[in-house]
Each structure stands twice: as C-alpha cells, then as structure tokens.
Amino acid sequence: MHCYATVNPRLDLLQTYPFEKLRALVADVKPAEVPAISFGIGEPKHPTPQFIKDALLESLGGLAVYPSTIGSDGLRQAVARWLERRYHLPAVDALTQVLPVAGSREALFSFAQTVIDASRPNPLVVCPNPFYQIYEGAALLAGARPVFANSDPARNFAPAFEQIPDSAWADVQLLYVCSPGNPTGAVMSLDDWKQLFALSDRHGFVIASDECYSEIYFDEANPPLGALEAAHKLGRGFERLVMFSSLSKRSNVPGLRSGFVAGDPSLLKKFLLYRTYHGTAMSASVQAASVAAWNDEVHVRDNRTAYVEKFREVTPMLSEVLDVKLPDAAFYLWADVSRTGLSDTEFARRLLAAQNLTVLPGSFLARDAHGVNPGVNRVRMALVATPDECRSGARRIVEFCKSLG
C-alpha cells in the first residue's frame, strides 16, 4: 500500500508560465547563426547606478540582523515623500499607509491571499486581459475564480470593465489593474478611474493597482496618472485602494527585489499581519540602498531618456512592416503581426529561425474571454537591450517581414 503526500489541489489550476510556453514553442527551432537578440523578457538591461551599489555595499553590516517586516522608518519615510512629490498628494502617513515589500511580484501575489474570503460563495477576481499572469495565479490559489476585462484597442488598450456582466460584480472581491499596462503600455485616464471607483463603491471590492512601469514614459510634462493620485484628484480617500510599485524598472535593480505597497491603512494593517507570518522582510542592506534610490530622480530621468531615444528610433522602423505605435508608457511595443499573414506563434518561431531574435507571442499573455483572446496575432517586444541591439533587432524584424513577400 502506498501513501502519497497531500498537496494543494489548486496548484493544478495554474497555467504554464508564458516563458515556459515560449521555450516549448521554439524547442525544435534552430536559430540563425547570428548573435542572439532578445525582445522577449521584460528585464531591465540598463546599468544599475553606481550610487545605489555603493549604498548597498556601505550597509552590508545590516546582514547581521533580522529585518523587521514593517521596514525601517527611513525607508517608509523615503517612499512616503516620493509619493507626495510624484503624485502631488497631501501628507502620506509613512507608518500606516506605506509598507515595503520584496519586489512588487511577491506582494501582488500575496495580497490576494490577504483579501480573498474563499468561504463566501463564488469569489471572483477581475483581471485585465492581456495581463501579468501573477494576478491569475494569486486568484486561483486564494480560492477565487479570475474573470477578465479585455483590452479595448479603440481606447488605446485600456481594459473594458463594462464587459464584466452586472450579475458578476456582486461576487467580485478584488480587482487587479496594471497602469501603465503590461504588455499594452496603456495608462488609465481619470475617467477610467472614476468609473472603477464607482464600481468599487457600489460593490465593495478592493482595487490593487500595479504601477511598476510608472516611471518609464515619453513626455516629461505628462507622467502617467497613478491610482492614489486619481483618488486625490476625485476628492476621495484611499478606501479599498492600494498601489504597488518597485525599483526594478525605475532604477534598473531587478535583483534588489525592492518595492512597496501604499494606500488604505486598514488593508495594509491586515497585509502586514499576513506578511509577518509569510516571512518576506527586506534585508536592512537592501533597505538602505532603496532609500538612496527613492531619494534620487536624476538617474530616473536619465533612464527614461534612454528609453525615449530607443523608442523614437525603433517604432518608426517597425511601423513600416507591422501595425505598431508608441505606447502610452512602459518599455513594450504591442505589435499586430496580421499584415505578415502569420499567427503570433508562427511569427515568433520563424523570426527566431531566420534572425535569432526572440519575441513573446501575445496569445501567451492573455486568455480566451468574451469570445476572443485579445493577444492573438500580436507580439510583445521588450526594448530593454542596448540601443545598438534594439536598432539591430528592429532591422532584423524589418528584413524578416519583407522576406515574407
């Protein structure tokens, strides 16, 4: 007789991650014998600023102590002051309205475990579509069912929340939104936020706003609107609202694993309780480096300038052969490949074979919902490589598309 270990059956609900799907898709493809270029993974490749590395090295003594889950007063104060400057907010309470986290990814996942009450009938979590797959996994492992609001090309790919049936909203406990969006780059407008807040007021669900791309944009005079900023502009508080941010893209430190959650103090109090048991306190050394990063904007503007220059060169080149345009923000191009006569998956396979260049099929980033997969026939291109690589990659894509006749 065999005794088998019991595991959480909800794990079987998780879908394969997009990059695993990509590896399987191209497993039998022999890439062209030219240097590989990847537009596939959204991992920042710009250099980490030296002053951040220096701050980390100078604080290595912090490795000798257990960090507190709530984080240092210095880090919470630095984040609170940054929020006030960036989003023109009145005084943010660093003790009750800010909580450091080990990168936005783990916090976006664990937040659902705090919010969802799986004992209620039919708990639902609304996700944008296409989307960051962590939202779906978080919903499923919390005992909820994800439902999707497809992006609307007519509104520059903002999610169409009106697609969710009226009958479903009463069961929604949590809604994820990503602005600027991954992979579309869409930024929610004040009218979008007004609609969403009205739905939250009517039905009582929590809004989790993923804003990790907020500092990559193309017009210095018009930074993307944030959730807390929208709430303030509309004369409301932060009830049932939290936002997530990170240093990864802003400061080119994805390996630092440093971010924060801010907003409704009652939700953050419960989230802190959860995290005390979850064991994700940020190292004191990482906190010191994070304080230095949040207190400086010069390196952020320099980083943004580098992206602006790349997009300014690459987007017109690619628009000759694909349906693509400059996004609202973030560092992705969300390109329609229909003109090539290839599906998104076949485009990715044949591009790799012909040019040794990797892109991510859009259908891997979305789900079938409302009769359509909004990622079909699109590919996501992350312009995170060096300017030379981005230019070279764009030339290869143009050459490939033209070779299709």
Structure characterization notes:
The protein is built from 14 helices and 13 strands. With 405 residues, the chain is α/β, with parallel strands linked by helices. The chain folds into two domains: 144 residues, Aspartate Aminotransferase, domain 1; 232 residues, Aspartate Aminotransferase, domain 2, CATH 3.40.640. It has an eight-stranded mixed beta sheet with strand order 2-9-8-7-6-3-4-5, with helices on both faces. It has a three-stranded antiparallel beta sheet with strand order 10-13-12. The chain has a two-stranded parallel sheet with strand order 1-11. β7, α8 and β8 form a beta-alpha-beta unit. α3 packs parallel to α11 and α4 packs across α10. The model has no long low-confidence stretch (mean pLDDT 96).
Number of domains: 2
Number of E strands: 13
Mean pLDDT: 96
Give, in order, the helices and strands: HEHHEHEHEEHEHEHEHEHHHEHEEEH
Tell me, briefly, the overall form: globular
Work out the helicity level. 25-40%
CATH topology of the largest domain: Aspartate Aminotransferase, domain 2
Gyration radius, rounded:
21 Å
- The CATH homology group name of the largest domain: Type I PLP-dependent aspartate aminotransferase-like (Major domain)
Structural class: alpha/beta
Oligomer: single chain
